[in-house]
Amino acid sequence: MGKVVLYSSVSVDGFIADENDQPGPLFDWLSNGDVPLDDSGGIRVSRASYDHTRSYWDEIGVTVVGRHVFDMTDGWGGKPPSGIDHVVVVTHRPMPEGWDPNAPFHFANSIETAMARAQELAGDRTVEVAAGDVGGQVLAAGLVDEIAMDVVPVVFGTGKRYFGSVDAQHLLENPHVVIQGNRVLHLRYRVRH
């Protein structure tokens, strides 16, 4: 079984978007470099960010998101982002009207069901969980192995929190990945269980 990684780009004060769900400059590091991160060539990062991010993206078999992210992205048009094989959506609502049931998206009505399905689909590859409310719930349930953050030098003050509404203490190990890119710091921490 692969590891579970909670991930997002984040402001230095812990937000993944502003109050209006806008990421502001959080994704600027994905367009401020010279090295194409994917085949589209639209994402260009520094060499350090490429070396870190490309290998991380290649580990991911499944991404778990909440219905809010799914709706905001319009389900990525039925094609999982960044070459990921499957997306598991945590939701209490049915799949959208007219949604292609053959698209590699799976709908689950609880964190536990979503994570079991994601692990099954991922096999020994990484299950990535999007930070935010769902990510915080997965962490609170004790199902996260690592925290991955792309910390961007901006202060939001308010907005959508990286860990959602988590209100309990969770101890992490010292960071085992610390990589400085162009206007981003890539960090990874193992979660103490």
Automatic annotation (TrEMBL):
One Pfam family linked to the record: RibD_C
Q: Which residues form the Bacterial bifunctional deaminase-reductase C-terminal domain?
A: 110-173
The family database entries (InterPro entries) matched by this protein are listed as:
DHFR-like_dom_sf (IPR024072), RibDG_C (IPR002734)
Q: Give the classification, highest ranks.
A: Bacteria, Bacillati, Actinomycetota, Actinomycetes, Streptosporangiales
Gene3D superfamilies, sorted: Dihydrofolate Reductase, subunit A
Q: What is this protein called?
A: Dihydrofolate reductase
Organism of this sequence: Nonomuraea composti
